[in-house]
Amino acid sequence: MATTADRPKTASPADEAWTLLRTLFGQQRRRFLIAASELDLHPAQAGALLQLATPLPMNELASLLACDNSNVTGLIDRLEARGLVTRQPSPHDRRVKHVVLTDAGRELRARMLDRVGQPPAGFERLTQAEHRQLRDLMRKVLDDT
Amino acid sequence: MATTADRPKTASPADEAWTLLRTLFGQQRRRFLIAASELDLHPAQAGALLQLATPLPMNELASLLACDNSNVTGLIDRLEARGLVTRQPSPHDRRVKHVVLTDAGRELRARMLDRVGQPPAGFERLTQAEHRQLRDLMRKVLDDT
DNA sequence: GCAAAAGCTTGAGGTTGTCAACGATCGACA
DNA sequence: TGTCGATCGTTGACAACCTCAAGCTTTTGC
């Protein structure tokens, strides 16, 4: 599909594994963009929605989305105008506002998750044992302890 | 970090594997955004550059980026104005234009790849054997034959 | 108590993304 | 051969995104 031209002829297993993961990322990103547009969400709005599994300070949302604080303000403004989230002052720090999903927001987020939270096509080719293998490998890579 | 709240109490290995992959996607996306901004590229421009391992018709670029044709026009306009790409008419079809990297474009793309094409931190925790395992699993998932 | 820092907002300016409409070219089919 | 429908890229309008600098409020550390 693409990225193939970047793979040196003799790639180490690690490099090839990572390259393959990156092509999976690309596929997933396309899935994400299509899902967002089907639900009438701009990519950034869909991304914010997905992060809101639990209420988050604007602050933290900005760092998760890797963008400026002021960006999040407008983003949340629009989601709030559509009744998908509300701003809720923090009890502990009067500077911070928590972004909380409304029922409508939770429902839309669930619909988004139906489309991108499920494994992609090729995934069911793996056996049970291979799924466990993959899970264990990913646990090791992501291990934050 | 996040997404944890979406994992049902008893997830199947497949679901957990996919959830872990999605958190890795999130990390990689943040890496990508940071790398792009360090190179003075907007995310969309960086994404386009990465796709251009080989010359591509505007058309195909749009479908890879999952966006409208007209969007690519402006995107390439700006990359062209910066001397990173050129438009080259197709010999076979006078409607299509191929987007080709200039030397500067190739150089910038390489710098981008240095930052996102290398495996992330947790990756080196895997042994050689595990890297091979992961590579084989990903090959099976992505097998397009 | 006071200065420095953190959290959110505002405004300016360029970029992204979508839609509808257009000219040019191709392909199929009569 | 000629014509009709589809495809490719572009344009224009308009909303949303994103960053930066500046500002206000609140908190923290000294």
Can you walk through the features of this model?
The structure is a homodimer of 145-residue chains. Chain A has a three-stranded antiparallel sheet with strand order 1-3-2. The first copy, chain A, is elongated and about 55 Å long. In chain A, helix 3 (58-64) packs across helix 4. The two termini of chain A are 37 Å apart. Chain A is mainly alpha-helical and 145 residues long. Chain A contains six helices and three strands. Helices cover 58% and strands 8% of the residues of chain A. Chain A has helices spanning 13-38, 43-51, 58-64, 69-81, 103-116, 128-142; strands spanning 56-57, 85-89, 97-101. The interface between A and B is large, with 58 and 58 residues. Chain A binds a DNA duplex (30 and 30 nucleotides) through residues 37, 42-45, 57-59, 67-75, 78, 93-97.
Mind sketching the topology for me?
The structure is a homodimer of 145-residue chains.
Chain A: H1 13-38, H2 43-51, E1 56-57, H3 58-64, H4 69-81, E2 85-89, E3 97-101, H5 103-116, H6 128-142
Antiparallel strand pairs in A: 1-3, 2-3
Helix pairs in contact in A: 3-4
The structure holds a DNA duplex (30 and 30 nucleotides).
Entry summary:
The structure is a homodimer of 145-residue chains. The first copy, chain A, has six helices and three strands; from the N terminus they run H-H-E-H-H-E-E-H-H. Chain A has helices at 13-38, 43-51, 58-64, 69-81, 103-116, 128-142, and strands at 56-57, 85-89, 97-101.
Helical residues, percent of chain A: 55-70%
- What is the oligomeric state here? homodimer
* Succession of helices and strands of chain A: HHEHHEEHH
| Order of strands, widest sheet of chain A | 1-3-2
Give me the secondary-structure category of chain A. Answer: mainly alpha
Radius of gyration of chain A: 19 Å
Sketch the major β-sheet of chain A: 3 strands, antiparallel
Q: Which shape of chain A, going by the Cα principal axes?
A: elongated
Report the largest inter-chain contact: A-B, 58 and 58 residues
- Uncertain runs of chain A: none
DSSP strand count of chain A: 3
> Gap between N and C termini of chain A, in Å?
37 Å
Q: Write down the overall mean pLDDT of chain A.
A: 92
Count up the helices of chain A.
Answer: 6
SS strand fraction of chain A: 5-15%
